[in-house]
Amino acid sequence: MGALGFWRLAQADPEWVAAVDPDGTRYTAGDLLARANRLVHGLRGLGLEKGDGVCGLVPNGVEGLVLYLATLQAGWYYTPINWHLTGPEIGYIVEDSEAKAFFVHERYAAEGARAGEAIEAHRRFAFGEVEGFRSYDEIVDGQPDTLPDDRTNGATMHYTSGTTGRPKGVKRALMGIDPDDSAELMTFLLGLFGIPPGRPAGGADQAHLITSPNYHTAVTQFGGTALHMGHTLVYTDKWDAEDCLKVVQEHRVTNTHMVPTHFKRLLSLPEDVRGRYDVSSMKWAIHAAAPCPVPIKQQMLEWWGDCIWEYYAATEGGGTIASPADWRAHPGTVGNAWPISELLIVDDEGEPVPTGTHGTIYMKMAGADFEYKGDREKTEKDRLKDFFTVGDIGYLTEDGFLFLSDRKADMIISGGANIYPAEIENEIILHPKVADVAVFGIPDEEWGEQIKAVVEPAEGIAAGPDLAAEILASLEGRLAKMKWPRSIDFIETMPREPNGKLLKRKLRDPYWKDRESAI
User: Where is the composition biased (Polar residues) (predicted)?
Assistant: First the structure.
């Protein structure tokens, strides 16, 4: 093995600036290593053993990073929890993950305290003041900052969004190897995009911008991998388009992970604001999480150059990648399979479909076996032999490039025809008076479902029948009439998770609540 892995790099170059908090505070690798070591010693004193779990309800920044670095060198599972959840929802994850320690930041004190009942009082720790929680200092004060003995790799255990029923933890078996060796294996992720190591590992300065909450799998994986390669992590607290450009310029950010909503907001900035900042340091602006409308991506490529990379993947493992050149040759693709991944497109009977035919996307990845913790039935249900699906629909071209259609659950069946909301959303979002849009099916006595659009107007634009008519008129000649929304409602703010994922059920469910079943 080479010299990658945070703990190795931190010992070799303790003065390397490994992280920058949202408030601009810089942390050296030596400082982070000492903090992570003290926490391991403290939690071992609490009785934590290999395979145990640790939960963190913390904002983006160094507190969560220390939890990550401690657990991943001590053979524990780390579960970062979505801070938008309520106390009972948080408590469910703490209990279901069988956590032996629970850390809460005072920013989330109200819901964190409600969730505290899910774990014994002496296992609750707070950054700041949280009722019923011990101070974080209690567990680390007096602990040595030396590397702990018997180090072994841990892992993150993220909980999936839970579009149906309770969320489930995606759990992988631990390999029982050196944490730095495990971290080095992780670096294949950024290697897929051709991203090199940073200065402590023998490369040039590299900085990774964290744009979304760290409780998301991709954010943790990309940020963690960048750190293990010797990049500086630059955290943002709340994403803002102009602030993003400012941070890229200030920290000479070289790589980041974004979602198409970020692109739309960046492109909506006035031309003079966009021209104010130098973003030429950016070499890999990687995006995923939702299909990106072709014109929006073209505009980003024109502005930022050939640094816009795309991939498609799932917490469970496996995926595709599209370089800027791949995408220019196949506009709209999410790429072809990773070298260690395979794709399979099947019909409703589980039989493979011909090239170019829509079907359910199944994936597998070498060495990435997983289970939904405590739910063998769900683990098996979403599998086809050794492939798994998250319920997305798409098709493959002759040369193996994947195109996404939509989530199976979001597909509209109207008059027997399959209609993909994403295709309609991708056209409506291009309207200059539209900030965000969601399309879904609502009950229709004659057709089974009819198409409903919900639009968040751009800033300063009045909602109403005139805007609805203008949006529909803009679809003329671009979208078959059968795909036009029958009606458009307006909303002040679209319910999206900060990673860009649309909470479509929040919009859709009220229309179906009086029905026996939703289609």
Answer: 153-164
CA distance 464 to 481: 21
| Cβ atoms of residues 263 and 38 within 8 Å | no
Torsion of CA 87, 93, 95, 96, to 10 degrees: 150
> Are 77 and 71 a contacting pair, CB within 8 Å?
yes
Token output for 430: 């291009």
The CA distance from 361 to 86, in Å, is: 33
For the chain, domains (ranges, CATH) are: 6-163+176-206 (3.40.50.12780), 333-410 (2.30.38.10), 421-512 (3.30.300.30)
In tens, the pLDDT along 417-430 reads: 678 788 899 899 99
Closest CA to 24 of 236, 317, 240: 236
Alpha-carbon dihedral 63, 64, 70, 71, rounded to 10 degrees: 150
pLDDT tens for each residue of 423-461: 899 899 999 999 999 999 898 877 778 999 999 999 999
Coil/strand/helix, residue 345: strand
Cα of 228 vs its chain's centroid, Å: 19
The DSSP element (H or E) to which 335 belongs, if any, is: none
**Closest C-alpha to 224, from 179, 260, 262:** 179
How many angstroms separate the CA atoms of 405 and 392, rounded? 8
Model confidence over 335-368: pLDDT tens digits?
Answer: 999 887 889 999 988 999 999 999 999 988 766 5
- Name the residue type at position 418: N
**pTM recorded for the entire structure:** 0.81
